[in-house]
């Protein structure tokens, strides 16, 4: 079981609640340079291996096998785990990562033990066994899921209903408390209008919105950057995905005013430094954002839900779906303004925090050229969509 310990981080525990020894050692050593979200994901993969080992007959303890360097047993356990990953009815996208993570985990712990003085004359034999471990299992690949790559941009009618329901005070707003309505609305604007990732939204500091006066009027922008984790008690600790994710994003005056309204009137006095706060005066969590969107999805009419399923294959809206939608609309607007394709692609990389060689913008360029999107996304869609179509320079 994965647990988060305050001022320490993520730890795997056994069924009695005691930390698992070698997974804890691995997270402190090999996992020290990983982002919190990546470390959490890999520890969950390792926990899956621990659970598999303990389900074998007779029950086995992985820590014991690693501690004594019983390579025959370790190899048997890895083979059994690989077979279990192959024999699944539905192949998930994480199956290959789970296998590689646990193979590297066993090899890394064994290498560290092999370097200790306790192994003595066995070092040469251990080195041979490690080489055999990599040779036997390094090239094995679990089955890959058969997926079709498509852009999950929301249909116009679905987005129109979302706007109608998420606006504070709306008749069909699924959140009865006005403070919660504004919290959800601010989150919605950051995900859709600014195209932020969920984790980027959750690490914004309270003073993230900047402005300056010029001949053109007041210009607003926000900085996406890494922040201190000291006061972050959330189970799923949000973090910056890559170096390319650190960026400045222009913000329209309309969006900025709505965000400031939440900060000044509904955020309240908090004992943390993050912009978005929960009802319990703690930093808003990833689970909280998912909950918001689940309720918003349930508030949609049957017609909108049917259209969502027909167009995208989805039954509910996720935070990343809003980012996808923002990217499709931004790409279409850049092309409509007459920007050459290479320039439009680079602007997309800068705005959404992709690496310079990322191919993600091409997916949105393809979607922007589709007749369906070209006809439904127009500057005259309505007042609310016009807010999204604003593209500050």
From TrEMBL:
InterPro entries assigned: DNA_brk_join_enz, Integrase-like_cat_sf, Integrase_catalytic
Protein name per the record: Tyrosine-type recombinase/integrase
Domain Tyr recombinase: 153-378
A Pfam entry, by short name: Phage_integrase
Keywords, comma-separated and alphabetical: DNA recombination
Coiled coil region boundaries: none
Domain of life: Bacteria
Organism: Massilia mucilaginosa
UniProt keyword Chaperone, yes or no: no
């Amino acid at each position: 079981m994965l647990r988060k310990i305050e001022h320490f981080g993520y730890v795997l525990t056994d069924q009695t609640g005691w930390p698992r020894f070698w997974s804890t050692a691995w997270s402190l050593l090999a996992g020290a340079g990983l982002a919190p979200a990546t470390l959490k994901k890999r520890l969950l993969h390792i926990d899956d291996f621990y659970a598999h080992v303990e389900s074998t007959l007779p029950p086995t303890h992985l820590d014991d096998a690693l501690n004594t360097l019983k390579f025959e047993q370790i190899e048997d356990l890895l083979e059994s785990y690989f077979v279990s990953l192959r024999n699944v009815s539905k192949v998930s996208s994480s199956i290959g990562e789970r296998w590689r993570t646990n193979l590297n985990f066993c090899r890394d712990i064994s290498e560290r033990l092999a370097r200790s003085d306790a192994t003595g004359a066995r070092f040469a034999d251990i080195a041979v066994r490690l080489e055999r471990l990599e040779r036997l299992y390094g090239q094995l690949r679990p089955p890959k899921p058969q997926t079709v790559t498509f852009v999950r941009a929301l249909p116009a009618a679905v987005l129109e209903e979302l706007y109608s329901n998420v606006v504070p005070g709306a008749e069909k707003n699924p959140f009865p408390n006005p403070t919660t309505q504004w919290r959800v609305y601010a989150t919605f604007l950051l995900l859709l209008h600014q195209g932020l990732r969920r984790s980027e939204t959750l690490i914004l500091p309270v003073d993230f919105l900047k402005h300056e006066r010029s001949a053109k009027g007041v210009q607003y922008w926000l900085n996406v950057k890494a922040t201190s984790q000291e006061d972050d008690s959330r189970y799923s600790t949000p973090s910056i995905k890559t170096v390319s994710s650190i960026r400045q994003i222009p913000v329209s005056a309309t969006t900025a005013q709505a965000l400031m309204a939440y900060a000044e009137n509904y955020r309240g006095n908090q004992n943390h430094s993050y912009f978005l706060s929960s009802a319990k005066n703690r930093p808003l969590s990833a689970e909280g954002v998912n909950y918001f969107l689940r309720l918003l999805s349930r508030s949609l009419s049957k017609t909108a839900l049917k259209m969502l399923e027909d167009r995208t294959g989805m039954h509910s809206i996720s935070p990343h779906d809003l980012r996808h939608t923002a990217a499709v609309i931004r790409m279409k607007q850049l092309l409509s303004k007459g920007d050459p394709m290479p320039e439009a692609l680079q602007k997309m990389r800068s705005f959404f925090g992709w690496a310079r060689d990322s191919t993600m913008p091409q997916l949105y360029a393809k979607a922007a050229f589709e007749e369906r999107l070209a006809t439904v996304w127009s500057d005259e869609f309505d007042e609310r969509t016009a807010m999204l179509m604003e593209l500050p320079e």
